[in-house]
Design goal:
about 0% strand, disordered C terminus, 74 helices, 3 strands, three-stranded mixed sheet
């Protein structure tokens, strides 16, 4: 160019002022140049390069002619709004025209235009230069430019080479996101862009700087996280794919291509940066920490999941692991021996351990062990990284334990074979490092050392050479290793032949000398000291107290003196006498009942392990310690406070563990956190190396009174709660078969010697004694825990169950199943839930495994209990299976918040895999099994009758086993009674003598007469308990006893008098559902009816006579049949058709018609005619309304307008009984629905002007309908009619009622009885139920109801006509009051109003209050309502308003005044 400028100057001077053209200049230069081959081509390239370097594109575009082209410039191309009307084709056309005018290729011009635009975008807004991401405006402009570039590229108007050359010049100003957009949108690939740069080192430096900035900004910026994540992922994928491609021909010695070298260099630079940052120490949340965390996060399956082949990532991971292990190998072996306890998993930097875990994902455990072995054999290594990698491997890989042991075995074999010191060092370092992680992960160092060198099979026993090699190596370790390892070598020495004993003696002397220098004594070692622990050696007295606590725990669970204590008393007597016994014999206040500590001391004394003088001193000190008990109590409080911190740390670690449940594939993350939990657990319970093995082959538990220390219970509750929470969290993301081995790993940590008895004791408390109170999540979690504990059966001892029964040992699965009891209904329901959850979890977890494995996971006892409870409680399971369910187990149903356990149990029963399991002989529920489970149920708490429980077994196929001699006398009595019925035959001779009834009824009557009468709580409970026993006896006897045998008179009518009397007087009040008896007694009666009819000459006539008698003598039997008709009818029709080959008798047919009438009234079909009598049809309609699911009661009762008045009145009576039942029975019809039913029927009655007040004046002396209705309702319900009366107060038509003559005395009578019910406490059940339910607030409050009734009377009395008061005397014969002072020694009888006032004044004068006010029917004295009304009216100081209202309206009869309401509030 200097020559050119010189020539131009010369030419200018010679030609004067004339300037030559560009062509003349070129022509002149060409003439002076020598011609040669390729000269023209080189000249053209030089010219194009010159134009590209000095061309101003803005000026060139402005020089293009035409109005449109003059407005097209670079700023418009970048600005989307300014160039909105300019399409890519227009811009391309303009560029093509301009290139033709300039004489340059259009691709070159377009490339420079786009490059200039991108650079302008990256440098806009004046933001800091240390950026790699675009802002929103820059990203929008870049999108416009790339859209044009894609058009140019598609039409061959763009040169990638020229574009790369342009960007190369401005590389340091180019943002990394812009480069990424060019790569992903195929404008120019990153490989092309990088390879166009000649300086490899410069491009590596640029990429390293921008990648570090990208990692930092990813952790800081949340707005562009997705884009930054995609950028980093794409760059890493490209570098791995290009840098770690497999060489096609490994025999060719080829230099890797430039892109591969560049990719490997960038990845190496990033890893070295991260490792050096970790070595210098990182502060959390610092920019470097965030960059390292982000970069390590790229080593995951998400980053490399889109790669077609896994070969490149695997090679990259192996290369990275090699770099980590060999990074700065400055530590010597002696340093590793001295410092390796600080390199455990828990102490390794979390970022480094996370990198290890991510590398382990791509490489199998076998490959990892092989890679470690290869690196250690061929490289100088960083021992800290190697050993921390070993710790992470054994923690995060379940298979690593055996693989590491095999690797160590190979190392030892190689070491002793050739006296290879390197292999020996590696073996010991690896074993010690793995043992640091605890016995649940790897055997302790003491166990390994004893197993490797403590027998003749050890590698050292081959020759003297190997022995010398071993002890020379151990001696070289003495100056550097921790005291723990020397203690192991001394206490568990290698087995040495006697002739080489001097080698061992020399080493022991050297080791003891070193321990003495360190002030550590072998003789003072603890009994349960963890020799593999990385912790410092404790003082002897501190360790002795822990040894005592652990020895007591072992003694408590085994019942024997621990072996370690017995051995110490012989072989380690100095420590035993100087430290252990003083700690054990610490003076204290001895408990009245000897505890475990006292029992251990007594056992040692009897074995002569405690000197008599020391024991005597201990006893004297304990005697004097009673005076200092408060000080000891304060000391205990301080000790409990000290334990709070370890529990808090354990709880925090368990909470962190729960967060790892969101991704089942990240098992390494869970394992890492589980290691932290194990360490915290060891601190909380003081676990040591002895926790990995059991001294005894049994764990002893007392299942009837399981007890735990407070700290032990807190720890195990934390663990069990964590397991349940983890299971629920994991089940929300994946089913059990895809959750990984986290649960098995968790349970393994619970199976240590110290912890397993605690866990089993707590499970005994929860499952056996608190099962029904557990929540659904607890049931699911504990059920899964039981399954995993059962899988550990080979590794855990049997459980020695100590109970009043003969002592027996059970395998762990059978013991866990035995904790599920069936004694009560609640326990049976819990057993059904637990078995359903456990079996469903096992089936779902093992869905892909063989049947043999599945059978080994399930306990036969658990399967049998599930079948027994299912047949017993769910009648749907007793029939044949219509079709098997091919879906999976109902585990997903159980995890729902509103799980239907019965539905889940039926789904499990129908599941095909479960049915296939039942074909296995060990899972058969035989007759013997059924009988044993049946005998476990307590009859007084059994919800099923004996016959129903017996029918629950009828569906079983394996009933060939006979009853063993262990059955109780009830079963044998049942068999004798059945045999007697068979001997009696189908037709028995009819009796001609008058019936006296079965003798049992006379026994029942005499026993009931001997019980206390009354309705107080104690009397009611006693009578109810007696009646439950009677019902159980009747249900256990043949049903014909209830009905009796036909007599010889014509017509032949069975005598049911005794049974009817028992029902009317007793069962109606205690064993009923409102207006009907329970299902079991109803079915038993009708079976007896059929049996008796089979003995009659005219079965239909006998059935009709009995049912007709029921309508008058015991109508509740008829209503009971109507209530249970859907379950009763199939059996009645089947048995009648089988025995008599004819239609049902007329009265049974009438019951069916009544049932049909009730259903038709609530359907859209025509209403069937109601059968007589009216109360039967009303009962059927009432039960149909209660069972209807529709919410609108009004629309269902519209058809009642056409029914008779008597039917409506009786229906209203039944609805009142339903209302009371809803308040008294929690599981009855909803109370609000019952109120709606009563209100609608009441409106119907008012509409037809039908009086219903007669329902509240029923009496036993009334004949006809009144007597029938009273026998249909329990006495407590009848007494609560005032509550029902005023519960419907808001629905009364006051004007219509006041016009009725009987209104006033009914309202006053109900008011007085309501007060009496309240003061006697008979409304307590109603108020208690209302207090538990939000919906019943205001519906069941007796106090509020009395207040409303009082206001109602105050408003109604002035409106009543005079003739209403003339009828007040009618109330007198039916009402009575008594005033009773509740005292344990006496009660007061009040016979007049004056007595009442005298007693009240006397009580008030002595500071007493009247505890029980007047009550209805049954008092020891009776006062007429008139007297009570006088008292109410004359006591004006209590309620002057009521007194004034009554006195003003009652002028005719002076002695019938309405008295004031008692002052209750």
């Amino acid at each position: 160019m200097s020559d050119l400028r010189t020539q131009d100057a010369a030419s200018g001077s010679s030609s004067g002022s004339r300037r030559r053209t560009w062509a003349e200049l070129l022509a002149g230069r060409v003439e002076r140049q020598l011609r040669g081959p390729g000269r023209g081509h080189r000249l053209q390239d030089s010219a194009v390069h010159l134009l590209r370097r000095h061309l101003n594109l803005d000026d060139l575009l402005l020089e293009v002619e035409g109005p449109a082209c003059k407005t097209l410039c670079l700023n418009q191309l970048v600005d989307r709004e300014a160039s909105a009307n300019l399409s890519s084709s227009f811009i391309g056309s303009a560029l093509r025209d301009q290139a033709s005018r300039l004489g340059v290729p259009v691709a070159v011009l377009s490339s420079q235009t786009v490059a200039s635009s991108i650079m302008q975008i990256c440098s806009s807004n004046g933001e800091p230069t240390h950026r790699v991401l675009l802002n929103a405006e820059q990203r929008k402009k870049l999108s416009s430019v790339l859209e044009v570039a894609q058009y140019l590229l598609a039409h061959s108007m763009f040169s990638r080479f020229s574009f790369c050359q342009e960007l190369r010049e401005v590389q340091n100003f180019l943002l990394l996101e812009a480069v990424w957009h060019l790569h992903v949108q195929n404008i120019v690939s990153l490989q092309e862009l990088l390879e166009s740069h000649a300086d490899t080192q410069a491009i590596v430096t640029w990429l390293f700087r921008d990648l570090c900035l990208l990692c930092e900004q990813m952790e800081v910026s949340t707005q562009h996280t997705d884009i930054a994540q995609a950028m980093l992922s794409d760059f890493v994928q490209l570098f791995v794919l290009r840098g770690f491609q497999k060489i096609s021909d490994p025999r060719r010695n080829m230099e890797p291509e430039r892109m591969a070298q560049l990719a490997v260099a960038v990845l190496r630079r990033m890893l070295i940066f991260a490792l050096e940052a970790l070595a210098t120490g990182l502060q959390d949340e610092s920019p470097v920490y965030k960059a390292v965390k982000c970069w390590f996060g790229m080593f995951c399956g998400h980053t490399f999941g889109r790669m077609i082949s896994t070969d490149c990532p695997k090679r990259f991971f192996s290369h990275t692991l090699t770099q980590v292990l060999t990074h700065k190998p400055v530590l010597k072996v002696s340093d590793a021996v001295r410092l390796q306890r600080d390199w455990s998993f828990a102490k390794t930097h979390p970022l480094l351990s996370s990198l290890y875990r991510r590398l382990f994902v791509m490489l199998s455990p076998e490959e990892l062990i092989g890679h470690l072995e290869e690196v250690l054999g061929t490289h100088e290594v960083n021992w800290q990284h190697v050993l921390s990698c070993v710790s992470t491997l054994v923690i995060c890989s379940p298979e690593a334990q055996q693989l590491v042991q095999d690797w160590v075995t190979r190392l030892l074999a190689r070491a002793f074979e050739s006296c290879d010191l390197d292999s020996m060092v590696t073996a010991f370092l690896v074993v010690r490092q793995a043992a640091l992680e605890g016995p649940s992960v790897f055997p302790s160092y003491a166990d390994w050392f004893q197993a490797s060198f403590g027998s003749t099979r050890g590698f050292h026993s081959g020759s003297k050479k190997t022995l010398v090699f071993l002890f020379k190596f151990l001696s070289d370790l003495v100056p550097f290793e921790a005291p723990r390892y020397m203690q192991v070598h001394i206490l568990y020495p290698p087995l040495v032949p006697s002739k080489y004993r001097s080698l061992l003696t020399d080493y022991v002397t050297l080791a003891k000398t070193r321990l003495a220098d360190l002030k550590v004594s072998v003789e003072n070692m603890g009994l349960y000291e963890d020799l593999s622990s990385a912790k410092d050696v404790r003082e002897p007295h501190s360790q002795a107290h822990q040894d005592v606590e652990k020895a007591i725990a072992v003694f408590e669970h085994t019942g024997k003196v621990p072996v370690a204590v017995m051995e110490a008393s012989i072989f380690r007597r100095p420590y035993y006498m100087s430290h252990f016994l003083p700690a054990l014999l610490t003076p204290r206040v001895l408990p009245r009942t000897p505890d475990s500590r006292a029992a251990l001391i007594e056992s040692l004394r009897r074995a002569d392990k405690i000197p008599p003088s020391l024991y005597s001193t201990y006893c004297q000190a304990c005697s004097s310690a009673a005076e200092k008990k408060p000080e000891n109590a304060a000391l205990g409080t301080k000790t409990e406070a000290i334990c709070v911190e370890p529990l808090g740390l354990l709880a925090a670690a368990l909470r962190e563990l729960r967060t790892t449940m969101t991704d089942p594939t990240q098992y390494d993350v869970f394992s890492a956190q589980m290691a932290v939990v194990s360490e915290r657990l060891s601190s909380a319970l003081g676990l040591g190396e002895e926790d990995g093995s059991f001294e005894e082959s049994q764990v002893q538990l007392n299942i009837f009174s399981p007890e735990l220390e407070p700290q032990d219970q807190q720890v195990v509750d934390l663990l069990l709660t964590s397991f349940c929470q983890n299971l629920i969290a994991a089940s929300g993301f994946a089913p059990p078969d895809r959750q990984g081995p986290w649960a098995a790993h968790f349970v393994t940590s619970l199976c240590g010697h110290r912890l397993l008895p605690i866990v089993l004791t707590r499970l005994c408390q929860l499952l056996r004694h608190q099962g029904p109170s557990l929540s659904a999540s607890h049931v699911l979690g504990l059920a899964a825990l039981v399954i995993h504990l059962g899988e550990r059966r080979p590794a855990v001892p049997e459980v020695h169950v100590a109970s009043p029964a003969p002592v027996k040992s059970l395998p762990l699965p059978e013991f866990l199943s035995s904790l599920l009891t069936l004694r009560t209904t609640e326990a049976s329901l819990f057993c059904l839930k637990f078995c359903t959850a456990a079996i469903s979890y096992s089936l779902c977890k093992s869905s892909s495994q063989s049947k043999d494995i599945l059978c080994s996971c399930l306990s036969p006892a658990l399967m049998k209990k599930f079948q027994f409870i299912l047949f017993r409680l769910l009648s749907e399971a007793r029939g044949p299976l219509s079709q098997e369910d091919t879906a999976g187990p109902p585990w997903k149903l159980l995890c729902l918040p509103s799980a239907d356990w019965q539905r889940a149990a039926l789904c499990l029963w129908k599941q095909r895999t479960f049915q296939e399991l039942l074909q296995e002989k060990e899972f058969h529920l035989t007759y013997r099994d059924w009988l044993q489970l049946e005998l476990e149920i307590q009859p007084e708490f059994d919800s099923l009758s004996d016959m129903e429980s017996l029918r629950s077994y009828n569906c079983l196929e394996n009933s060939d086993l006979v009853l063993s001699c262990t059955g109780n006398r009830d079963i044998f009595s049942r068999l004798q009674e059945m045999a007697a019925d068979l001997e009696q035959g189908p037709v028995a001779p009819q009796r001609c003598s008058p019936s006296e009834g079965h003798f049992l009824f006379r026994v029942f009557r005499r026993r009931l007469q001997g019980l206390a009468s009354g309705w107080d709580v104690a009397a009611r409970l006693q009578r109810q308990q007696e009646l439950l026993v009677y019902r159980w006896i009747l249900l256990g006897l043949p049903p014909s006893i209830l009905v009796g045998s036909p007599q010889c008179k014509q017509p032949a009518t069975p005598d049911c008098t005794e049974f009817f009397h028992l029902v009317n007087s007793e069962l109606r009040n205690f064993c009923c559902h409102g207006s009907a008896l329970t299902h079991d007694i109803t079915v038993h009666f009708f079976r007896g009816l059929l049996n008796t009819c089979s003995q009659s000459r005219d079965p239909s006539l006998a059935a009709n006579l009995i049912l007709t008698t029921c309508q008058t003598e015991c109508p509740i039997v008829v209503t009971s049949a109507l209530l249970w008709w859907p379950r009763l009818e199939p059996e009645l029709r089947t048995r009648w058709r089988r025995c008599f080959q004819g239609p049902l008798p007329q009265e049974l047919q009438r019951l069916w018609e009544a049932q049909l009438f009730g259903k038709s009234c609530l359907s859209s079909d025509l209403v069937s005619p109601p059968p007589g009598p009216a109360w039967v049809s009303a009962a059927a309609l009432h039960f149909a309304i209660q069972q209807a699911e529709e919410s609108s009661i009004k629309s269902q009762l519209e058809k009642l307008n056409c029914q008779s008045e008597e039917l409506l009145v009786v229906l209203f009576f039944f609805s009142l009984m339903g209302l009371l039942s809803s308040h008294l029975t929690p599981h009855a019809v909803d109370s609000l629905k019952a109120v709606d039913i009563c209100a609608e029927i009441l409106r119907c009655l008012d509409k037809r002007k039908v009086s219903w007040l007669v329902l509240f004046k029923l009496s036993d002396t009334d004949g006809g309908m009144g007597q029938v209705l009273l026998r249909l309702a329990p006495d407590p319900y009848v007494r609560l009619l005032p509550f029902a009366f005023y519960s419907l107060l808001s629905y009364f038509d006051e004007d219509a009622f006041i016009r009725e003559d009987a209104f006033l005395h009914v309202a006053v009578d109900m008011y007085l009885k309501l007060i009496c019910l309240f003061v006697t406490g008979e409304t307590s059940a109603v108020s208690a139920l209302a207090g538990r339910s939000q919906e019943l607030q205001g519906q069941g409050d007796p106090v509020g109801l009395i207040i409303k009734a009082r206001h109602f009377l105050l408003q109604s009395i002035p409106k009543c006509p005079e003739k209403s008061f003339a009828n007040m005397a009618e109330v007198t014969p039916r009402s009575s009051v008594a005033c009773v002072l509740l005292s344990p020694n006496h009660c007061l009888n009040i016979k007049s109003a004056e007595d009442t006032c005298i007693v009240a004044t006397h009580l008030q004068g002595h500071g007493c209050q009247l505890l029980c006010w007047p009550w209805v029917s049954g008092g020891r004295t009776r006062l007429s309502t008139v007297i009570f009304l006088q008292l109410l009216a004359t006591s004006g100081h209590c309620d002057p308003e009521v007194s004034a209202a009554l006195l003003s309206r009652h002028q005719a009869v002076s002695d019938d005044d309405l008295y004031q309401e008692p002052h209750l509030f």
